[in-house]
Write a structure and sequence with these properties.
Elements (H helix, E strand, L loop, with lengths): L10 H8 L5 H19 L5 E7 L5 E5 L4 H4 L3 H7 L6 E7 L11 E11 L2 E11 L1 H7 L8 E6 L5 E3 L9 H5 L6 E8 L2 E9 L5 E8 H19 L1
Antiparallel strand pairs: 1-2, 1-5, 3-4, 4-5, 6-7, 6-10, 8-9, 9-10
């Protein structure tokens, strides 16, 4: 939708975003073509909560449940995309609309790209992805004492934490991050932790694994005991 706007299949998007409001019959025809194209593009994508195409006058076409134009135009990333300062924006988990903030399954994270035509930005496309995808990817059920978090490497904000996650601060999760990947030891409330991190090559998000130092030591001692027993 955003990067291949010259193809025959999605030329309807350009026509719809640029159609004259006065030509209502043509506008409706473009709307129907764009809706059909969007539906065929989005069908069978399990984790897609909704996708919407907007121009900057408030015109939009959508699939699924999406955010109204009046709510997105006030967001910081909106001007960044509109003014061509950025080719993609990742929006941290949020409710798809401020008017519907329950149940928790209505929380999504979003990917936003500009719609380009003739070298100019004529609109934007926003895909809302169910936050359940983050649970499936990062909820490792405390394997070997580890817990996985996701943070925004640009803002330091917490993107994801499992429901039963230890109560640790953002400073603990991000205070020792010095590059794209690495590890460090830190202490909080009398507990020593090992923190291991790696930054995604696609998003500006950092995956952080945290485990108590005592868990590592107990695991080592257990292995040492087994080795001594085997040698004996």
């Amino acid at each position: 939708i955003s990067n291949k706007v010259s193809t025959v299949q999605n030329n309807c998007v350009i026509k719809y975003l640029q159609a004259d409001e006065q030509d209502s019959a043509y506008l409706v025809e473009c709307l129907q073509d764009t809706q059909d194209y969007l539906t065929s593009t989005c069908n069978f994508k399990t984790y897609l909560h909704g996708m919407a195409i907007y121009n900057f006058d408030g015109r939009m076409v959508s699939y699924g449940l999406t955010t109204p134009f009046q709510e997105i135009e006030g967001q910081d990333w909106f001007a960044v995309i509109r003014d061509e300062e950025q080719k993609i924006a990742f929006v941290a988990p949020h409710y798809y609309t401020i008017r519907q903030q329950s149940p928790s399954s209505s929380r999504v994270f979003s990917i936003v790209r500009p719609v380009l035509y003739g070298g100019e930005v004529i609109g934007l496309v926003m895909a809302d992805i169910k936050c359940a995808l983050l649970d499936e990817m990062f909820d490792i059920n405390n394997i070997n004492g580890y817990t996985i978090y996701v943070t925004d490497s640009e803002t330091g904000a917490l993107i994801y934490a499992p429901e039963d996650a230890p109560d640790v601060s953002i400073q603990t999760l991000t205070g020792g991050v010095t590059g794209d990947q690495g590890h460090y030891f830190t202490e909080e409330d009398g507990t020593d932790y090992l923190v291991v991190y790696t930054t995604s090559s696609f998003t500006p998000w950092t995956v952080v694994g945290i485990v108590e130092r005592s868990s590592i030591i107990s695991g080592f001692i257990s292995v040492r005991k087994q080795m001594i027993l085997m040698i004996s």
